[in-house]
């Protein structure tokens, strides 16, 4: 079994109104050292797969077909093998 930790973020060229609003609100709260904010998504997925390569392939397909918008978003997958005792 594998656990995938997937981080999905807007591409740098895409405006992030939620991040901009959060940045503004943080400034209003006195967090003056925060220079920018980008908001993304985090997905945790358990995968039954025979190999690391197979698990990574399933996670990548899930990202490209459903979890992320390939026009606007990038994703990064961290894959860990889970030892079941």
Task: Write a concise synopsis of the structure shown.
With 85 residues, this protein is an alpha+beta fold. The chain contains two helices and three strands, in the order βαβαβ.
Entry keywords:
2 helices, alpha+beta, elongated, 29% strand
Characterization of this structure:
With 85 residues, the chain is α+β, with helices and mostly antiparallel strands. The chain has a single domain, classed as 2-Layer Sandwich (Mth169, Chain: A). The mean pLDDT is 95. The protein starts with a strand and ends with a strand. The longest helix is centred in the C-terminal third of the chain and has 16 residues, at 52-67. It is built from two helices and three strands, in the order βαβαβ. The relative contact order is 0.34. It has a three-stranded antiparallel sheet with strand order 2-1-3, covered by helices on one side.
What CATH calls the topology is Mth169, Chain: A
Order of helices and strands: EHEHE
Per DSSP, what share of the residues sits in E-state strands of 2 or more residues? 25-35%
User: Could you give me the name of the CATH homologous superfamily?
Assistant: Phosphoribosylformylglycinamidine synthase subunit PurS
- Tell me the helix content: 25-40%
Helical stretch count?
Answer: 2
Distance between the termini: 11 Å
The CATH class is identified as: Alpha Beta
**Would you tell me the structural class of the helices and strands?**
alpha+beta
User: Which residues form runs of ≥5 with pLDDT under 50?
Assistant: none
User: What would the average pLDDT be, to the nearest integer?
Assistant: 95
The global form is elongated
Rg, rounded, reads 17 Å
By DSSP, the count of extended strands is: 3
- List the domain count as a whole number: 1
Give the second-level CATH assignment, the architecture: 2-Layer Sandwich
């Amino acid at each position: 079994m594998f656990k995938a930790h997937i981080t999905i973020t807007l591409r740098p060229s895409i405006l992030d109104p939620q991040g901009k609003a959060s940045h503004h609100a943080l400034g209003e709260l006195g967090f003056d050292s925060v220079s920018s904010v980008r908001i993304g998504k985090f997905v945790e997925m358990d995968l039954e797969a025979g190999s690391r390569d197979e698990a990574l392939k399933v996670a990548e397909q899930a990202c490209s077909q459903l979890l992320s918008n390939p026009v606007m978003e990038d994703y990064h997958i961290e894959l860990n093998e889970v030892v079941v005792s």
